[in-house]
Amino acid sequence: MRVLTERGAESFLKKKGFEIIETSFVRDENKLEKEFKKFKTPVVLKVASKKIVHKTKVNGIKKNIQTLNQAKKAFRELMKIKNAQGVLIQKQISGKEYLVGLKKTQDFGYVIGFGAGGSKVEKMKKIDFRVCNLPGVNDILNSYGLSVKKSVEKIFDRLCKLAESQEKIKALDINPLILEKGKALIVDAQIVFE
To answer: Could you tell me the fold of the domain covering 22-91?
Structure first.
């Protein structure tokens, strides 16, 4: 079994044609300063680690970073977290957060999951599932009243095609997927291969 988290998962998905939010990885303050200048503020800083699955549980996300001094302070705090391997800088976008999942099941093959994302996942625990490549897989979106339904449908389509490929994916989680200005952008992801 092989697991890809954050950078690895996002790089994999980007190569497969998925839209990923602009991200940079830094390990030291010199690189932080260089990369920070490339972003339009505000930005988000996140702890990066193969061993940290839930960043919010370790206070591993710093939002609304406007200045380089704020970024350096956030960077130092994040690097103190146990198992921190570096920090991700991401463009901060506002929009509704969703979870999209792909899972291999014994009975139905691959299923797509969709529901409220971000930190709401733990509280709401409402995820709807549909079997990949069956008529009605996109009906899962009807109760959400999405303004960018077509963008999410494209992601479903790509995920189902990915399931048919030779990648041997056991589970794939995109959380959050943020819907903004007609786009559906992947902000964080994790992939488990068989």
So the answer is: Dna Ligase; domain 1 (3.30.1490)
